[in-house]
Amino acid sequence: MSTLPIYLYGNDVLKKKAKKVTEVTDADIKLVKEMFETMHESNGIGLAANQVGELKQILVVDISDMEVGEGTKPMVVINPEIVDEEGEWEMEEGCLSIPDVREKVWRAEKIRLKYNDINMNDCEVEADGMLARVLLHEIDHLNGVLFLDHLSSTKRTLLRSRLKKISKGDVETQYEVVIAGEPKSKSKSKKIVL
C-alpha cells in the first residue's frame, strides 16, 4: 500500500458533497487501506475520502493511540447518517487539509450514527466525546463543510491571510499535498491534527 496526497484548502473537491456508495469495489477497499495508511503517516485521527480527491461517502477514524480513545477500534464509515445528537462542547480542532490552523469549534457531545461498514452491512453506533467529534468533523467533510465554516465571520476574516498561504501551498507538512490548481508537491514538518 501507499499513501495518498492530501488536498489542501482551496481545492474545489473539499467543498463538494460526496456521493453515496452503492457497492464496495476492489478499488474502494484499496482506497480505504490507503486512507488508513495516509492518515497514520500524517499523524491524523480521521480522514474523509474527499480529502484525498475522491467524492465518495467514505471516511476512516482511528483514535486508539489517544488516551481518550484507548480500546476504541479503528472504523471505516460508509454513507454516514447522524440520527441523533445530544449536548454540546467546545474543543480546538485542526485538519490535515488546513495545516497549522487550529480553532475552537462547538460540536455535539454525543451522537447516534447509522452507516455501512466495509462489507456494506447496516450498522449503528453511539459515540461520545472525542470519537463523536472526529466522526462529526469527517462527516462534515463528506458534505463539503470545513471546520472553518463553524467559525464566526470575524474569526474567518482574521484567518484569511493564513488560509490564502495554505491554498497557494505556502505551508510545511510532513505529507504529500495537492495545492489548488497545481500538481502535487511535498514539503516537511510534523503536526498532529484531526
Structure description:
The protein is α+β, with helices and mostly antiparallel strands. It has one domain (6-186): Peptide Deformylase (Alpha-Beta Complex). Helix content is 23%, strand content 30%. It is built from three helices and ten strands; from the N terminus they run βαβββββββααββ. It has helices at residues 26-41, 129-142, 153-167; strands spanning 6-7, 46-48, 58-61, 75-86, 89-95, 98-107, 110-116, 122-128, 176-178, 184-186. A five-stranded antiparallel β-sheet has the order 2-3-4-7-8, sandwiched between helices. The protein has a three-stranded mixed β-sheet with strand order 1-9-10, with no helix packed on it. Strand 5 and strand 6 form a beta hairpin. The protein is globular. The two termini are 22 Å apart. 36% of the residues are buried. Mean pLDDT is 92; it is low at 185-194.
Largest sheet: 5 strands, antiparallel
Structure annotation, total helices = 3
Looking at the overall shape, the CATH architecture is Alpha-Beta Complex
Tell me the domain tally. Answer: 1
Helical content band: 10-25%
- Main structural class: alpha+beta
Q: Assembly type of the shown chains?
A: single chain
CATH topology: Peptide Deformylase
Straight-line distance between termini: 22 Å
Number of beta-strand segments:
10
CA radius of gyration is: 16 Å
Strand order of the largest sheet: 2-3-4-7-8
